[in-house]
Amino acid sequence: MIKILDSTLREGEQTPGVYFAPETKLKIAEFLDHIGVDIIEAGNPAVDSEIALAVTRIANAGLKAKIGAHSLCRIDDVKKALDCNVSFLGVFFSVSSQRLQCDYNICLDEALDKIVEAITYAREQNDSLLIRYTPEDTVRSPMKNVIEAASAAVKAGANIISIADTTGYTTPFQQKRSIYYFVKILKEELAKRELYPQIEVHCHNDRGLALANALDAYRAGIDIIDVSVMGLGERAGIVDLAELLINLSDLIEEKNFWKLEYLKDLYNLVSEYSHVPISPHHPAVGKNAFTHYAGVHVTAIAKDERLYQSLNPEFFGSKSSIALGMQSGLTAVELALKQIGREELVENKYLVAKILKEIKEMAKRGTQIDIEKELIEIVNNC
């Protein structure tokens, strides 16, 4: 079964301007746990003492999910993470030629020593700890460097190797730039060394392909996929939690235990405290996700919602609705009248047509018409 790692509290808080207080982080973590996320990456404790406090509180909250901390590949930072009582530790160190030469000013062997030192220390502290090593910017690094670093990490005690598409470079449309390719190559090369860690992917959305790449990784047999609420994260963010679960729920034949009905409340909570609005067109959780507007659409869904819906809104704790405006037809007015408890007016075709004319006139202002308030006013004036 594919595992989901949610990084809203770590990667998501790397969105410029986003800050979650410790009590808010715990609420978000509880929602993620209700949904059935396997791993919650709660933050990097070395960044700030308040982050360390939040990670500790979440780790001690008795949630079913494994609670993780993010850390530089450095003993002092690893110690701060382990002091938070986490059950998952993610350490990262790039082995790309450019980073080794221009940023770190070390050779590959020196990099391997640092990776092994940090992971060995963590493993010595906690034999049951789930440890992930990430060769940052994996997909733009020489594959031989990635294989050497991943092999050394696993031998030192890492359980998971993450393929990080740190800059959103991959695409499913070019074989040797696809996540599918990197997953297959990494698994094959590690298996030749009789090493079988879990493989994870962390896909950034710089080219708008994060979800496509994550699904490509699923096709390749990935074990863990990283996500965040609303795809929050550095630059263009990462894979969106809701969008991934919607698609995986279609792809996975066996019964899964994701409780999608909690998504809407979770997204509203994260949006409120991050001050990042949810797009009205966001699948499943956006205001317009199950709203029908054009006359042809409304006439059809009045007979059978499946004619213009491939998702069941009930799975997400929602229901279908209609909108009124320039694109509306008589059927939309009739349904809206029933919605406000004035279904006796539906038989008056002249009145319905007059109401529709007023609706179209009001729509020219360029804002959505409030059925519960403005339609009532239109009816009263007609």
UniProtKB/TrEMBL annotation:
Keywords: Acyltransferase, Cytoplasm, Transferase
Organism for this UniProt entry: Microcoleus asticus IPMA8
InterPro entries, sorted: AIPM/Hcit_synth_CS, Aldolase_TIM, LeuA/HCS_post-cat, PYR_CT
PROSITE patterns per the UniProt record, alphabetical: AIPM_HOMOCIT_SYNTH_1, AIPM_HOMOCIT_SYNTH_2, PYR_CT
Signal peptide: none
Recorded superkingdom: Bacteria
First-tier enzyme category under EC: transferase
Family recorded in the similarity comment: Belongs to the alpha-IPM synthase/homocitrate synthase family.
Keyword Coiled coil included in the entry's annotation: no
Name assigned to this protein: Homocitrate synthase
Enzyme Commission code(s) on record: 2.3.3.14
Coiled coil: none
Any one GO MF annotation of this record: homocitrate synthase activity
Domain Pyruvate carboxyltransferase residues, every copy: 2-270
